[in-house]
């Protein structure tokens, strides 16, 4: 049994389930920001995908008036 905990790694739809996106200045766009539920694989077969939040990149700067 192998645990899938992809924090900080690129999102992979074969092993991860994206629940939402979140802006992040620290984590590159398309990488996992938060792992909500770890996933598991057994002998190379996916048992449960990891539920994750994916970075949408840095938040856009707000317009100043």
Which labels suit this protein?
mainly beta; three-stranded mixed beta sheet; 65 residues; 46% strand; three-stranded antiparallel beta sheet
Topology (elements, then pairings):
Blueprint: E1 2-4, E2 16-22, E3 32-37, E4 39-42, E5 45-48, E6 50-55
What does this structure look like?
It is built from no helices and 6 strands. A hairpin with a 2-residue loop joins strand 4 and strand 5 (45-48). It has a 3-stranded antiparallel sheet, with no helix packed on it. A 3-stranded mixed sheet has the order 2-6-3, with no helix packed on it. It has 65 residues and is mainly β.
Order of helices and strands: EEEEEE
Largest sheet: 3 strands, antiparallel
What would you call the structural class? mainly beta
Rounded average pLDDT:
92
Extract low-pLDDT stretches: none
Overall shape: it is elongated
CA gyration radius, whole angstroms: 14 Å
Number of strands: 6
Strand content: over 45%
Helix coverage percent: under 10%
Helical region count? Answer: 0
Short description:
This protein is mostly beta strands.
């Amino acid at each position: 049994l192998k645990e899938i905990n992809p924090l900080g790694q690129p999102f992979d739809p074969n092993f991860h389930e994206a629940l939402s996106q979140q802006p992040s200045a620290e984590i590159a766009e398309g990488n996992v920001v938060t792992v909500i539920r770890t996933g598991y694989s057994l002998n190379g077969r996916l048992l449960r995908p990891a539920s994750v939040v994916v970075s949408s990149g840095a938040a856009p700067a707000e317009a100043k008036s």
